[in-house]
Structures are given as C-alpha cells and as structure tokens.
Design goal:
The structure holds 2 protein chains of 2 kinds. By secondary structure, chain A is of the alpha+beta class. Chain A folds into 2 domains: 2-76, Beta-grasp domain (Ubiquitin-like (UB roll)); 84-154, [2Fe-2S]-binding domain (DNA polymerase, domain 1), CATH 1.10.150. Chain A has helices spanning 22-28, 84-92, 101-114, 120-126, 138-154; strands at residues 2-7, 10-15, 47-50, 53-56, 69-71. A 5-stranded mixed beta sheet of chain A has the order 2-1-5-3-4, covered by helices on one side. Chain B has a 7-stranded mixed beta sheet with strand order 3-5-1-12-9-10-11, with helices on both faces. A 5-stranded mixed beta sheet of chain B has the order 7-15-14-13-8, with helices on both faces. A 4-stranded mixed beta sheet of chain B has the order 16-24-25-26, with helices on both faces. The chains are: A alpha+beta, B alpha+beta.
C-alpha cells in the first residue's frame, strides 16, 4: 500500500504495508536518526514529532501517519546549519555516545516550542520518556535550560 | 600553560552525532542482507537429545539454519581480553548442552527478521532435562550439578565443583593484626546482578568485500580481539578479516564480549551474503551482566581508627560461562584493598558457575561490589569506635608516596606489580566534598521523612599494567594538518577527542587540525581496546610518544629550511621559528617541502605504549537522602563527587564520565534488579520492569575535579571512566543507616528491603520469594 506523509516539510509518497512500524519505514527510507533501542516504547531512541507531539515511532504503524506531518532530527538542520538545541547539546557536553541524542533533541524541541522558558522540573519531565545511560542527564538538562535562557534574552 | 589540553574542546564526532548522521553499526544499507535470530534454551540446564531443523529450512526465505550439528566446535572464551586470555575456554559457537535459560540452541538466517523469527519456532528440539543450580554457595558443594562437564574446555580450576578459579593472598600477619585490634567486626555483604543497558543493543553486520575478505562491522569495545577470536573460532586467518568499529551507542563493558560476531560471520561465509545480527532489548538483558558477589568481610581497628587487619573473602557468581570470571574476582581485591592503610590483609576469592545468566565486564569490574562491603564496614567500625565516618576516611587511606603490599600480591588474574602512589589528591577530595554536602549532625525532620548523610571513598586503576598496549600513527598533510590513526575505541566516552587534544598539544596546533580515524583493523595500529580505564592513560601515552616523534621530524626539516640548529629553534602555532632571527617556516611549508621538494618522504610515525604501573584515580563521594518511613522509598536529594583523575584532558568530558557513572551507580543501588522465576529465567527483561533512572529520578549533582599530576600519564592524566560507579552503593547504604538506623547489607535498597530492614514488614512480597542473587 502507498501512504502520503509530510516528512520534514516535504510531501512523500511511500510504499509500506499494514504491519510495518513507522520506525522501520523511516529507517528503511534513510531517516537513520530514528534509532532502534527497545522496540517496546520504553527507551525513546526512536522518538519523532508527529503533528507537534513527541511520539515513539516503534509504537505506530506506518499507515497511521498517512496524511499527517512528521519531523525527524534530519529536519532540524536541513542545510547543515545547526539548530540552537543541537548547538547547545554540542557545547554543553550533552552528547556522549549520541544514540539517545536524536530523541532527546526532539523532546527538547517539543518542549521549547510550547514553553520557551521551562523550569528544570519541566525539562526533566519533558525528557523523562527518553533514556540515556551515558550522561546521567545532567548536561542534557543544562543544555536544554541554556536554550531556554538564550531564547529569554532574545525576547 | 596548555593550549589544547585541559580545555573543553567540542567532541570531534559531535557534529555528526547532534545531526543524527548515519554513523552507527546499523546505519548502512546493504543489498541482499540476511537477518539472524536465535533459538534460545527454555531450560536452565539440559542436553539437546535431538534437533530437527527440516521444517525451518523448508520455509520460503530461510537461507541457513545453524546448530551444534553443522558448526565448528572450537572452545574459546567470549571475553575480549589480551592474548592468552585469562578467562576459561568454556564456550563454543553452539553448545549441545544448555547452561542457562537463554543459552543458544540454534539460529536462523533469513530474508527478513520476521521470517527468521517464524522459522525459529519451527525448529524441533528434544531436551534431556538436568537439575540446575542457582545458588553460588550450593554450586560449590559435593554432589551439586556439574555445569561444565565437557572434555574439551580448558582453564577451569575444578569443574566438578563448578569452581572456575580461586585466589588467596596474605600479607603481614592476620592473627596478630586482629590481636592488636580494639574492635573486630565481621559481616556479610551481597551485591546483585545488573545489566549495562546501553541504549544501542549489541549489533553486528558482516559482509564480504570486493576481494572476498570478511568484513565485520560491529558495536564493540575490542575490535582487535574480535578479529583474533573470530579467526580462531571460524578457523580462518586473521588476514582474511577486517573489523570496523563505527560509532558505538554505549557499552560499559558489555561490548567487551565477542559472541555474536563469529555467528554472523559464519552465515556470511556460508552464504556469501551480508548478514545482520541485532539483539532485542529482552535478549540484551541476559547477554552479559555484572557478577553478583557475596563478600564476607572481617576488619580489626584500634580505637583511634587505625586499621590492624582486613580479611576479605568473596564468592563471585559468573553464571553459565566464565567470561571475565577470574579477573573480576581478582579486581575485587586488587582495586579495593590498596586504598586502605593496613599491614595485615588476607584476600580470598572463589568464582563459580551457576545456571544463571552470564556475567562479564561491567564498569567498575568487581571493585563496585568490593567497595560496597569495605565502605559499608568502615562506617560500622566508625560507629563502634565513636568516630565520625568522614574522620575515619581521612585517616585510613593510602597517600601520595606510599605503597601497598597488595599492589604486588594481587593483580588482574595473576600476581600484581608493585607501585608507589605518585599522584593523589584524595585528602582534598574528602575535604571539598565534606564542605559541599553540608552534613548536618542532627536531622531535624520529624514524622515520616527522615534525612540521612553518607560518604564513601574509592579508587580504580588506569589500564592493566604490563598487559594493556595501545599504538598510534600520525601522518602529516600538505596543509599542516595531521591524520591520527588509533586502534583505541571510542564508545561514546569521547576518547577520539581526548586523543586528538593530546596530539594537538604536543604538535602545537589547534585540535581541529587533527583528523581522527579509530578502530579499523585494516587501517589503524593495534590497541587492546576500551576497557580497564585504559584509553586516556595507555592509548593517550601512545599518541603522546607518536606526536613527539613527528614533532622531531618537523623540527629536523625546519633546521634545514631555516639553516639553523635545533637549539635555536622553537615551535609555536604551527610554525618552526628561529629564536635568533624570528624567521619561520609554517607546517604547510614543511609538509610540502618533505612531500614534493627535498629528500622527499612522508612525515609519519607510529609508536606503541604500555605502562608498568596503573596509577589509581581517587574519589570521595557524599550523599544526602530522604527516606519515607511509610513507603520505604529513598530519594537521593544531593550527590557530591570530588574526583582526582590527574589532569583532566577535557574537563567537560571527564565530568560527563563522572556524572554518568554515578547515576548508573545510584540506579544500581536503588532500582535495578534481576527477578528470576524458579527456573532461573529473568522475569523482568524489559525497560518497563527493570527500572533504570530517567531524568526525573536524578538528584542535584555536584561534581568537582581536583587536579593532580600523574608523572607517568600524558600531560599528567589518569583514568576517569570507571572509578565513580563504586561510590553510590556504600554511600547510600551509609546514609540509610544515618537516617533510620538500619544497616542494609544486600543491594539494591528497594522500598521492600528498606521496610523489611526497619521491621515495618515481616516478609518480602511474593516477587522476592525467589532469590534475586
């Protein structure tokens, strides 16, 4: 079957099957930032943004997103220019192995789009569905906080 | 003083990682890929009587089914260690005998993972069920089921008693030491199973290159050991294999194992097709684990806190196979006991097989389990002699310029090497940490919530002395940049960046001029891999030597180009400058001169490095917790870690290692636990049921790096990757005692266990009727 889905702002017609998970479709189509960590909706490594909400692509069948709009990490820096969240992650040392990073950055984006100046507690809540085993989250929280503070200054 | 070292240089791989570029093992697409799935044993102890794969083989889309009947039987160890490995050769590709629930019966390679899974279900196996043994103390007894009775294994000390190895060392006079003591305490401490849970599970992709050579692209800590072990198991030469380590999605020890690579490789060799083998999260949980260790610890002390005798006896459970069995056991003594000034010490270790999941290397490598015992015991001693815990810590630890007889007596799987502590700022770590935690003597909270404080001190090593070797190659390009080729393996720790900074500092160029390529057995020199806290210290030493050699060559050419002797030359900012005339040649000019003009040659050097010592990093940890007396739940409020890792080559990356290992350690201490059913099957092999910390669970963290200068390390550096995972268990156990006056000597400190210890509930719930080992 064929579905129509907007990925990172571009309308795509993609072949899939009723049983294919969105995670598998996206990886098959080259969106490799979508990571396979547990396939049971627990680790958050396969997170994407669906209509403004953070969702785990391993828990969604590909046909379910037909007619919808999704964002993967590839969509944040289409021309190579890093998004402020990506820059903050890099500069604050919030990246170690980098496997949870795509999901974390998208979780941060969903948060900051809705709430540009989140508290530390709000940041921790927003990324609580995304597991990281390397950093202990300390520098991830700091990086997201910094983006919020920078936005604050710009306001 | 330094321009590149000691700076928070951005990760050299950071740009690609924040963009989510396809840099991990699974991020390549190959045509005609086969997907592999395991059939695993449902029994903890059984022999395969017969196995019928015909139905599976008949299925459309199935390329190959492998069992013990059609694969080579080559005993080996899966522990990715230096050769000859100190672990027993007790594993084969597919065994006939099953030794734990999850042991590998067979695998199917098929056109899709779904077909492979369906085909696995069609394999018909008849088992002869054997009695299992789960309790490590029972496993040692006469008449216990013998787990490794096969004839062709080697390196097992006493298979009939399931005893993989043992060690006993004595220094001083233990009896006399206890005789001198004012206080003698003896207690039993138990540290439990755990899994590393890297967010990327084990994964390997194999294929044949255009010349028919086998390429193994794998998520590993030990690419060179992968090549050697696979060559042995597959019966092919090392020269027929290339191992590539791409970016790795976390490892923490679990990827110091070689046990999927040769199966995928065998599929590729048999079918001449690419093959992919990726563990599911559930399989990952019982892939490799932390050794559960029982420690019986007896300590004697004088009233003033002087330690007079330590008798430490451990029983380590390695599960079904002996991966890292003896070395972890040795480390529980050798990385723990030298911390304490004590003239009379005995260490006795035994490591046994059981029919439970296989243990292996895990960050801390036995020291984590050992420190839970010693640092809990120190608080118990402190209370007996009426001393504050922090005062006892101030008094009893080894100091700069001192040695411990344990360094000589006990190594890693063998005798050790004597060493004197040439750098330690542990005293400062203790003072600074104590200041920052703001330890309050009389907790004020009333009612349900009780506040408590605890501390622990710890050390680790920096590489395995006289064993670990790293090598580096540096070659110079026309634009004055350098390729740095290292076998060292960046698992996400940032070691590529650290090594680039060491090269840049030495060559006096910005780090951006160093192009790092690591861990490809065809293109980089050898390195034992990323383990034993070795990369910065050992591989960094190799990079330093290599860069120095390249610098000598650059200066030599500068001498000729400037017509000056080297005494009159200096190197700065990528130039060789005459001190007399101030005239200079740039690196670009020097490289072009060498490549195109005079005495044409490539400026290049390769050097190797080993160390005959393993200078310990030190740390002092302090924790503040709140216990809810009603629920037994512990909340860690604040955690302070002061760490001496020598010179931090990149402080931000070093802090990241400390923060990550501490949160992993707190999570281990409080929530992570293997629950087994009566068959020895793990019942909670998912992130839903095996709770690792999320961002919501973390305490306020304060990390302070307290620099020392280690003369044997590159720019004064020691290790930092493992040491801090040793602190949370004892520090929190001590804080629990401070808060509610109960001593819990078995990890993890779950609400049930806390309530039980406080006498609030009689029995643990049904879930705990089965021991957690």
């Amino acid at each position: 079957m064929q579905i129509e889905v907007k990925i990172n702002g571009v309308l795509k017609k993609l072949e899939t099957s009723p049983g294919e998970r969105l995670l598998d479709l996206l990886r098959r189509k080259g969106y490799k930032s979508v990571k396979r960590g547990c396939e049971e909706g627990e680790c958050g490594a396969c997170s994407i943004i669906l209509e403004g909400k953070l969702v785990k692509s391993c828990l969604i069948f590909a046909p379910q997103v037909s007619g919808h709009s999704i964002i993967t990490l590839e969509g944040l820096s289409p021309k190579g220019e890093l998004h402020p969240i990506q820059r903050a992650f890099l500069e604050e040392g919030a990246v170690q192995c980098g496997f949870c990073t795509p999901g974390m950055i998208l979780a941060a984006k969903v948060l900051l789009d809705k709430n540009p100046h989140p508290s530390e507690k709000e940041i921790k809540e927003a990324i609580s569905g995304n597991l990281c085993r390397c950093t202990g989250y300390v520098k991830i929280v700091k990086a997201i906080k910094r983006v919020g503070e920078t936005l604050n200054k710009n306001v | 003083m330094f321009k590149e070292v000691g700076k928070n240089i951005q990760r050299v791989d950071g740009y690609s990682l924040v963009k989510g570029n396809p840099v991990f093992t699974d991020d390549i697409d190959l045509k005609d890929m086969l997907f592999i799935k395991f059939l695993r044993s449902p029994h903890p102890h059984a022999v395969i009587k017969s196995i019928d794969t015909r139905e599976a083989e008949k299925m459309a889309g199935v390329a190959l089914v492998l069992t013990h009947q059609n694969t080579p039987r080559v005993p080996h160890t899966t522990a990715g260690q230096g050769y000859p490995e100190p672990s027993p050769y007790d594993s084969v590709m597919f065994p006939r005998k099953m030794r734990f629930v999850g042991d590998r019966v067979a695998c199917v390679a098929a056109e899709s993972p779904e077909i492979a899974l369906d085909a696995v279900k069609k394999i018909d196996v008849e088992y002869k069920i054997l009695s299992p043994v789960f309790n490590p103390e029972d496993a040692l007894k006469d008449g216990a089921p013998i787990i490794h009775d096969e004839k062709d294994s080697s390196g097992i000390l006493d298979p009939k008693h399931n005893l993989v190895g043992e060690v006993e060392v004595n220094v001083g006079n233990l009896d006399a030491g206890f005789g001198e003591a004012d206080v003698v305490l003896e207690n039993r401490y138990e540290a439990h199973y755990a899994q590393h849970t890297p967010i990327e599970p084990h994964i390997v992709i194999t294929y044949l290159d255009e010349n028919g050579r086998l390429v193994i692209r794998t998520s590993t800590q030990v690419p060179f050991h992968v090549r050697r072990i696979c060559a042995n198991v597959l019966g092919i030469s090392i020269r027929k294999i290339r191992v590539i380590k791409p970016r790795i999605g976390g490892a923490f020890g679990t990827k110091q194992e070689v046990y999927l690579e040769y199966i995928a490789a065998y599929v590729t060799l048999q079918t001449e097709r690419p093959a992919k083998f990726e563990l599911t999260r559930s399989e990952e949980f019982t892939s490799r684990t932390r050794h559960p260790i029982i420690t019986v610890l007896k300590v004697g002390a004088r009233k003033d806190g002087t330690l007079t005798a330590i008798d430490m006896r451990i029983l380590s459970n390695t599960g079904a196979y002996g991966s890292h069995a003896t070395t972890v056991m040795y480390n529980t003594g050798s990385k723990v006991l030298p911390l304490y000034r004590c003239p009379n010490v005995r260490f006795e270790g035994k490591v046994v097989y059981t029919n439970l999941p296989v243990a292996g290397a895990y960050r801390g490598y036995g020291a984590t389990q050992g420190y839970f015992a010693t640092e809990s015991m120190l608080d118990e001693i402190a209370e007996k002699i009426g001393m504050a815990p922090v005062d006892l810590r101030r008094k009893i630890h080894i100091k700069e310029g001192e040695t411990s007889p344990i360094f000589d007596a006990l190594g890693e799987g063998k005798k050790g090497i004597p060493q004197v502590i040439s750098s330690s700022k542990l005293p400062l770590c203790i003072e600074e940490g104590f200041k920052l935690i703001k330890w309050k003597k009389k907790p004020k909270e009333e009612g349900k919530m009780k506040r408590g404080y605890g501390c622990a001190i710890m050390m680790q090593g920096s590489g395995i002395p006289a064993v670990d070797m790293g090598a580096a190659t540096i070659k110079m390009n026309e634009d004055g940049s350098f390729n740095l080729l290292v076998g060292a393996t960046d698992l996400g720790t940032g070691s590529d960046t650290i090594l680039a900074q060491i090269a840049a500092e030495t060559l006096k160029v910005p780090t951006e001029r160093i192009i790092v390529y690591s861990s490809d057995t065809d293109f980089t020199p050898f390195d034992v891999g990323a383990y034993a806290s070795s990369t910065t210290y050992i591989s960094g030493g190799a990079v330093l030597k290599t860069a120095r050699k390249v610098l000598e060559e650059i200066i030599l050419i500068g001498e000729k180009m400037l017509n000056e002797s080297k005494e009159n030359l200096k190197v700065e900012n990528g130039k060789v400058v005459s001190k007399k005339t101030n005239s200079s040649v740039t690196y670009r000019e020097i490289a072009c001169n060498a490549l195109y003009e005079t005495n044409q040659h490539q400026i290049i050097a390769s050097m190797s490095h080993i160390s005959h010592k393993s200078p310990p990093p030190f740390a002092a940890h302090f924790v503040e917790i709140l216990i809810n007396r009603g629920t037994g739940k512990i909340k860690v409020e604040k955690y302070v870690a002061c760490v001496d890792c020598g010179t931090a080559i990149n402080p931000k990356l070093a802090e990241g290692q400390v923060e990550g290992s501490i949160i992993n350690g707190i999570s281990y201490a409080l929530t992570e636990e293997f629950i087994f059913n009566k068959n020895g099957k793990m019942r909670n092999a998912s992130f839903r049921d095996y709770k690792i910390f999320t961002a919501m669970d973390i305490p306020e963290m304060k990390v302070v790096l307290i620099p020392s200068h280690e003369p044997s390390g590159p720019f004064g550096a020691k290790s930092v990757g493992e040491v801090c995972i040793n602190g949370p268990c004892p520090a929190i156990a001590n804080a629990i005692y401070d808060a509610v006056g109960v001593r819990i000597r078995k990890t993890p400190f779950t609400p049930e266990r806390v309530l039980k210890a406080m006498g609030e509930i009689e029995h643990l719930k049904d879930i705990h009727k089965m021991e957690n080992y």
